[in-house]
């Protein structure tokens, strides 16, 4: 078995050497594709689809078989060393219909420059809504072109049905790295002679681990497939969630995998909720229930959150008990909402209470299912909501879809604490699952707006503190697994302080850089030093001064051309670069007195991008010890599922949930 695997890996390596920037299909180095691919793992009883494809490249370097895909391919599955069985027979299903299509792809940048895509004809079948209940290894074999084989070894993980935690609160600091946490601590907490007098709530967590964020087919991930890995235990491809990406055109027919929320509802029948400072259709909240290879299908993803899968028979998560965040774009009836429908009304029809501002959110009772949509697009960040409040008036983001500004906005802490109250009440003995996302750590790091990103990180820390206090008050802290992690990072760090006054007054680029104080010239954090006449009323654990003369000197490995003066962007979130023709250049109105930094990215990128780094996992509560060490992002799913005891040894009676009020 081991020997066989090694040979398979070697073949894969040779075959895929020519496709790196672009791939014919991720997870499919040969002309036969099995999705879920080799190395896939499953929770016992987790629902999934299988898609197999046979490719016949018409032209390009792989051209073969006269461009005619083998339609007589065979699929078998074998458990351990048992004899292989026909796949449909083994699952007791009717053999699926043959599907055929074609697609094109560029083999590399030369082919793209020459506008010569390679054309591939495909024959395929999809086997839907399957589950494996017995732990162990399985070998799925696709045989095609008389004798060629693609083999996938699947592992069904151990069966853990013992419930150790009743509730789970999973915080995701989108894009949050250890370096950012360190910088946020420097801004929000005072140190004397190198010793912090107060610390972050995160710093009190007993267990810290490290997770690797790589995608199925690329080592840099985006937020869709990394969220999907955290929620499903399956790796996927950039822009995909809850599915493996196939080569067909439809973004809705790709082979699905069941998510933690769907399994939790199916097995435990508890309550679930999502809170985010992003649009609720954005990748991190949407991936809890979304099954699409295209994260930009915003309207459909909101429909999937409320109504589940409508194209295929699938398990039902019955809609969220709590759904709080931004993204009125998909709720107001318009071209961005699913089929132009009014999703405030669709939720109301299902008996949700609807709030659209902080006042009505805080006034909510704890009995009803609750939808809270507070603005269009992503929510304005903590710094604009709490320090530079006048900026809110410039947003055209009212939750009713008009160009008026949304001024009565809750923060992550308000939304998360309210969500916990409702979920604890609605989940009762069955428990609850809550995901709460600090989305703009990522969004503001993308635009190099360090202050806004770190403000939102401090708000996340505040939300964690308030949530653990609330769980304690409700008497359920010890039954609740609380996790804080990220989906990926950015190459951000701080290397000193910058004398912003000296910097802005020097005349040339090189002279300005003398303002950056490194090593002993970095000095102490000036963000925690009180200044006469400056008081934002934002309380402990936040900077007392956002405009110190000596600011942090920070930046990125991945960035567009931009100008740097290290000052807080008081009047609006930052735009570091803007497009002239088809390329990005330093934005002429940004940091005008700063020095020019030339970018490290393609000139088509106007923002920073995600980076390779592992990210931290903080854990507290039942099963906390299982989160120490270094592991893959998919392991978070298995650790949570095992702590909740979500594995199943058989289909049991009736796998779908009754509707709930
Ligand atoms: C690809 O498939 C479409 C529809 O199935 C067909 O109309 C088209 O001619 C095909 N393209 C090529 C280049 O074979
Ligand atoms: C392959 O064939 C298609 C359809 O005829 C064509 O558009 C494309 O340029 C061809 N690509 C190559 C690499 O020859
Ligand atoms: C599948 O479902 C999505 C929404 O979830 C919808 O937009 C799409 O049109 C459906 N596709 C088919 C082929 O029914
Ligand atoms: C909404 O609530 C009413 C009154 O309790 C109930 O009759 C109805 O079935 C509920 N509708 C849904 C979709 O849950
Ligand atoms: C908040 O929402 C409630 C109910 O939707 C509405 O009556 C009230 O006017 C709103 N308040 C503000 C300040 O917009
Ligand atoms: C949206 O709300 C604003 C502020 O309350 C109000 O002025 C406007 O008339 C409303 N627009 C719509 C379309 O309801
Ligand atoms: C550096 O950035 C500036 C401003 O965006 C741009 O005009 C210039 O071409 C860049 N230089 C190089 C070498 O890329």
Automatic annotation (TrEMBL):
Broad EC category: hydrolase
Cofactor(s) demanded: Mg(2+); Zn(2+)
Cofactor note: Binds 1 Mg(2+) ion. Binds 2 Zn(2+) ions.
Signal peptide per UniProt: 1-19
Pfam families associated with the record: Alk_phosphatase (PF00245)
Active site: 223 (phosphoserine intermediate)
UniProt keyword terms in alphabetical order: Magnesium, Metal-binding, Signal, Zinc
Amino acids binding Mg(2+): 174, 282, 284, 437
Annotated positions binding Zn(2+): 174, 442, 446, 487-488, 610
Family matches, as CDD domains: ALP
Gene3D superfamilies in UniProt: Alkaline Phosphatase, subunit A
Molecular-function GO term, any one: alkaline phosphatase activity
EC code: 3.1.3.1
Entry similarity comment: Belongs to the alkaline phosphatase family.
Name of the protein: alkaline phosphatase
């Amino acid at each position: 078995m081991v020997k066989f695997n090694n040979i398979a890996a070697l073949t894969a390596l040779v075959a895929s050497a020519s496709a790196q920037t672009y791939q014919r299909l991720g997870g499919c180095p040969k002309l036969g594709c099995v999705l879920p691919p080799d190395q896939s793992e499953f929770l016992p009883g987790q629902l999934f689809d299988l898609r197999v494809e046979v490719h016949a490249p018409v032209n390009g370097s792989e051209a073969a078989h006269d461009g005619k895909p083998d339609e007589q391919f065979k699929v078998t599955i074998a458990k351990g060393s048992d004899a292989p069985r026909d796949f449909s027979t083994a699952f007791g299903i009717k053999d699926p219909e043959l599907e055929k299509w074609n697609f094109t792809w560029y083999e590399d940048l030369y082919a793209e420059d020459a506008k010569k895509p390679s054309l591939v004809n495909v024959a395929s079948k999809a086997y839907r809504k399957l589950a494996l209940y017995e732990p162990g290894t399985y070998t799925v074999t696709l045989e095609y072109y008389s004798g060629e084989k693609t083999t996938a070894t699947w592992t069904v993980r151990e069966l853990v049905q013992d419930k150790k935690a009743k509730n789970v609160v999973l915080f995701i600091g989108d894009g949050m790295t250890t370096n950012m946490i360190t910088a946020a601590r420097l801004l929000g907490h005072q140190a004397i002679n190198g010793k912090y007098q107060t610390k972050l709530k995160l710093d009190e967590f007993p267990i810290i681990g490290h997770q690797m964020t790589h995608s199925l087919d690329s080592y840099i991930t985006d937020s869709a497939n990394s969220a999907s890995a955290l929620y499903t235990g399956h790796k996927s491809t950039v822009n995909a969630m809850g599915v493996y990406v196939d080569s067909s055109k439809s973004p809705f027919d790709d082979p699905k995998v069941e998510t933690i929320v769907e399994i939790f509802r199916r097995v435990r029948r508890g309550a679930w909720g999502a809170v985010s400072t992003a649009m609720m259709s954005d990748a991190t909240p949407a991936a809890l229930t979304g099954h699409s290879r295209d994260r930009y299908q915003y309207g459909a993803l909101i429909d999937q959150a409320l109504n589940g899968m409508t194209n295929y028979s699938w398990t039902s998560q019955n809609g969220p008990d709590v759904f709080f965040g931004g993204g009125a774009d998909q709720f107001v009836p318009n071209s961005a909402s699913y089929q132009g429908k009014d999703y405030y009304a669709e939720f109301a029809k299902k008996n949700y209470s609807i709030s659209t501002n902080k006042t009505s959110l805080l006034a909510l009772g704890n009995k009803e299912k609750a939808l809270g949509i507070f603005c269009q697009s992503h929510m304005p960040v903590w710094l604009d909501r709490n320090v530079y409040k006048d900026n809110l008036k410039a947003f055209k983001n009212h939750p009713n879809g008009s160009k008026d500004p949304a001024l009565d906005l809750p923060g992550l802490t308000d939304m998360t604490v309210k969500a916990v109250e409702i979920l604890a009440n609605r989940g009762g003995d069955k428990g609850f699952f809550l995901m709460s996302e600090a989305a703009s750590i990522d969004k503001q790091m993308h635009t190099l707006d360090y202050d806004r990103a770190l403000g939102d990180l401090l708000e996340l820390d505040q939300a964690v503190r308030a949530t653990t206090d609330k769980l304690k008050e409700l008497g359920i802290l010890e039954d609740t697994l609380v996790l804080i992690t990220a989906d990926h990072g950015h190459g951000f760090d701080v290397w000193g302080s910058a004398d912003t006054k000296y910097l802005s007054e020097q005349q040339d680029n090189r002279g300005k850089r003398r303002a950056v104080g490194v090593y002993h010239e970095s000095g102490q954090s000036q963000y925690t030093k009180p200044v006469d006449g400056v008081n934002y009323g934002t309380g402990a654990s936040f900077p007392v001064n956002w405009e110190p003369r000596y600011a942090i000197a920070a930046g990125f490995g991945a960035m567009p051309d931009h100008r740097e003066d290290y000052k807080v962007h008081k009047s609006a979130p930052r735009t570091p670069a803007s497009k002239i023709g088809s390329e990005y250049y330093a934005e002429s109105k940004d940091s005008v007195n700063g020095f020019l930094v030339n970018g490290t990215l393609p000139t088509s990128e106007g923002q920073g991008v995600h980076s390779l780094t592992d990210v931290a996992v903080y854990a507290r509560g039942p099963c906390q010890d299982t989160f120490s060490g270094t592991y893959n992002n998919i392991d978070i799913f298995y650790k949570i599922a095992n702590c909740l005891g979500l594995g199943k040894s058989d289909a049991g009676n009736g796998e779908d949930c009754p509707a709930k009020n």
